Amino acid sequence: MRNLTFLVILFLLISCNNDKNNHSSIKNIDQVHAENANNYGIVIHGGAGTILKEYLNDSLENAYKTKLKEAVLAGNEILKNGGTAIDAVTNAINILENSPLFNAGKGAVFTNKGTIELDASIMDGKNLNAGAVAGVRKIKNPINLAKDVMLKSEHVMLYGDGAETFAQHLNYKMMDTSYFYTKKRYESLQRVLKKEKEKTKASMSFQDSYIKDAKFGTVGCVALDKQGNLAAGTSTGGMTNKRFNRIGDSPIIGAGTYANNATCAVSATGWGEFFIRSVVAYDISALMEYKGLSLQDAAKEVIHNKVPALGGDGGIIAIDKDGNIAMEFNTAGMYRASMNAKGELTIGIYSENEINQ
Ligand code: ASP
After folding, report:
1. Residue 250 contacts residue 123 (beta carbons within 8 Å)
2. Ligand 1: distance of its center to the CA of 29 in Å?
3. CA of 10 to the centre of ligand 1 (A)
4. CB within 6 Å of ligand 1 — which residues?
5. Residue with the nearest Cα to atom 4 of ligand 1?
6. Domain 41-356 fold
7. Which of 204, 294, 347, 351 is spaced 20 to 30 Å from 19 by Cα?
8. Three-class SS of residue 213?
9. Residues with active-site annotation
10. In the prediction, which pLDDT does 198 show?
């Protein structure tokens, strides 16, 4: 009996002590907020694919790096000044959309009919609000229209003419199709059409090794702002020679874009059909939320195991609520850049480690 009493007292003492330790390690919400108050970060991509050194001459390589740097610095400046993750994402993407180097906005690839059809989406991790547009032809910056769908309509996704009518209500300028013409993209389409005629290759560009290697350039951005809010956005022209109003993963919330303050923000690039089927962006968030994986492990699992298991390729950029970042791809390269609250800037193109600038 005396032994039993002794054991009970010992147990009570130990649990009391544990309780005390637990209390001292639990931080209240204000402490957490104060510690994270100056944390922020941004990551951008300009598409993933078989980007090999021999495909880019020095001046083209420099042009890509310069544009990536300009976009990441612009977004970073907004975050540094206390701006929102949503504003950082749209501003950084606008710079890439306005450049002919990337397959989005100005530099979009051509459809089989020689037209352009642009897709974009954006998501706010604070409230899980989202907006998307698909198949728009006259909008200079589709990411802005996606943001307006999120903020100024009761819908999440608008398509084609309807999306453009919505844009007209908001006084968007309708661009002439000539704005989107670039020689490089036009020649890519001609090459695929020629191959189609010769019937030596399958019809869709992503089944054609040459074009598959030349189609990259979808753009995306993820950001964490000083208020602890995450956001993600993606904008693309899709795939060269696409037909039947094909839509890829980029405008699909959960596939090409996802943000949730509880986990992370993700923007994807790659072979859209596989990214839709793998629900790539949401799966990374879900692996963190339900399985407790770190951002890095979740991104690796999806990009190096799940997507290739179906036969797809591509990559993602992501940032989590603590500012950790991931830039994973299973292709030879991915145009990418990041910057954090410490001012550390990285820019990368090929699969070697990012260059610290
Ligand atoms: N994911 C885009 C699409 O399938 C293309 C890309 O990222 O290169 O439309």
Report:
1. no
2. 40
3. 63
4. 47, 216, 218, 236, 238-239, 248-250, 269-270, 272, 275
5. 272
6. Glutamine Phosphoribosylpyrophosphate, subunit 1, domain 1 (3.60.20)
7. 294
8. coil
9. 218
10. 80
> What is the helix (H) or strand (E) element at residue 334, kind and residue range?
strand 333-340
Quote the tokens at residue 280: 């790539």
DSSP-derived secondary structure for 146-170:
HHHHHHHSS-SEEEHHHHHHHHHHT
pLDDT-derived band at 38, boundaries 50, 70, 90: confident
SS3 42: strand
In angstroms, what CA-CA distances link 344 with 7, 89, 147?
Answer: 55, 18, 28
Query: Could you tell me which residues come within 8 angstroms of residue 315 by beta carbon, excluding any fewer than 6 positions away?
Result: 45, 48, 268, 269, 270, 303, 327, 328, 329, 330, 331, 334
Can you tell me the distance from the alpha carbon of 60 to that of 107, in angstroms, rounded to the nearest whole number? 15
Asked if residue 170 lies in contact with residue 148, where contact means CB atoms within 8 angstroms, the answer is yes
Q: How confident is the model over 141-181, as pLDDT tens digits?
A: 999 999 999 999 999 999 999 999 999 999 999 999 999 99
Give DSSP secondary structure letters for 295-326.
Answer: HHHHHHIIIIIIHHHHT--EEEEEEETTS-EE
Tokens of 149: 């769908």
Amino acid at 273: E
Q: Can you give the pTM of this predicted structure? A: 0.88
CA of 219 relative to ligand 1 center, distance in Å:
9
356: left (phi over 0), alpha (psi -120 to 50) or beta: beta
Q: 256: which strand partners?
A: none
Closest atom of ligand 1 relative to the 270 alpha carbon: 7
